[in-house]
Amino acid sequence: MRAVHRVARIALAAVALGIVPAVFPGGEAAAQEIVIGLSTARTGRYATSAATNEAAVDIAVAEINARGGVNGHKLRVEVFDTNGDPKNAQIAVQRFAEDVKAMAVIGPFSSQEAQVAFAAGERLGIVQMSNSATAPGITRDRAWGWSMVEDEGKQFARLLKTLSARNIVKEKTAVVMYPSDEFVGKALSAWMPKLLEANGWKQVIPPEGFPTNAADLSPHVTKLQGRSPAVIAFAGLPEGAVKVMKEMRRQGHASVLIGSQIFADPDIGRMLGPDGEGAVFVTWYWWDSNDRTRAFERKFLEEIRKRGLAKGGAHHVDASAYDIVYVFADGMRRAGVTGSDSICRSRTSTIGTGPA
Q: Which of 100, 164, 241, 345 falls between 20 and 30 A from 271, CA-CA?
């Protein structure tokens, strides 16, 4: 009978989900591999940002395995495409825990998926660490579910302070626009106004939601007639930001687009074109920060080209997926994990300086 050690939960205690790469000693690699699950959205509404996450994870796994793996055992990644569906995210974590016997799971991708999958993970006793879910409170009262500590609220609050400190806009008037059928959009529309008000901004109209698949946003933007705001605070995916700004410019508004997290895509400038002139947004990863980020960016671009994927650079959710592999590897190394037969889930608190 296999010993089941539900010893611990891999804890995150820093802005960066990462550690400096290290050699994981243990002698000659044994035949048994240590499995990590990747619950991601290759397809579906999040694919623009999530499709390249697997490449980032594979880079980290290859680096660790080249140094001898973890305690002499090579890492292997099992991937589950959730299509961005919370029901599939729940199926994914159950498969990883019960069928694959994975040590831990990277993901799921979105906050809505995490809300469901984290609850399942509590029952299954398996660590899940999302590289993207940032809705405030998503891990509250969770022992086995972890997400980025740099949530949307913290990022957006810093953005507002920076706009004021650097005098980027001349007046503090704003409108919040968001996809009304997206989990993150609805969440952000509730607290973005509070942050705007707390930082001295005036909303020209109440938050304006629109269906993700809406082809015509003119009825929504027309509500701003005669009340053109200095900024548009957008909460949602890149595709939604593109539609909003196209209609804003068509109706003659010169408002600056601002926002944080998921729409901060490395290709957002190309996607927006001239309509995005002056846009300001927050991301937790910058490719040119240091030697390690530059090395990761180079490897990432090489890897996605091999896979036939087009991307101008790594998204911050790619960088955090890469970092999570190192967080897991370090926790397993410290706990002496030697393979999935032990089903040992390690507990450690890791503070580091990874690409993200």
A: 164
